[in-house]
Amino acid sequence: MTSTPLPSRTTRFQFPPVPTATSFFHAPPTGKSTFYQQRFANTHMRINLDMLKTRTREDILLEACIRAQQSFVVDNTNVLRREREKYIRLAKAAGYAVIGYYFQSRLGDSLQRNQQREGKAVIPEKGVMAKSRSAPYAAGARGQSWLKVKRTHTLDLAVLAAEWGHGRRRG
Fold first, then answer.
1. Which regions of 75-161 does DSSP assign to beta strands (E)?
2. pLDDT tens, position by position, 37-71
3. CA nearest 116: which of 3, 28, 12, 22?
4. What gap in Å lies between CA 148 and CA 107, rounded to an integer?
5. Which whole-number Å values give the CA distances from 120 to 49, 114, 115, 116, 135, in the listed order?
6. Which residues of the chain have pLDDT under 50?
7. Nearest to 20 by CA among 87, 104, 86, 84
8. Are 40 and 51 in contact (CB under 8 A)?
């Protein structure tokens, strides 16, 4: 009886699979929630402060995921390292594989995506952040290259009349 040699490459699977803690980070709206729906909705719980409304609820769901060894995605802005640290520390201590996704987006694309949102999903434009293209990205650091988007409106006006001030407005 001859034996068949094993293939030189073997794939090793770990069973049960190691749960994953995934963190999305970048200022909204960059498509993080859509990415979650397309890639993770069937396998990972979504921890999202917009839905949960309070940090207490977020902590309860995070603890439940870790106790159940349930894979989860933290779908918050999490731009700063200290904002991600809690999730990473707890997940690593529980034996999770930790994965981070940085979403790079152009300002115009973000504003266009925001216009497609409806109701409470719309982010006030002042909440959209932009970074200078020439400035390097430093994970977890927000510095002078980060700018809040603020629309300016200018009007061309002609002064038709004026009146001298009175009291404190005098002068």
1. 97-102, 129-131, 146-148
2. 999 999 999 998 888 999 999 999 999 999 999 99
3. 28
4. 11
5. 13, 11, 12, 12, 32
6. 1-4, 6-15
7. 87
8. no
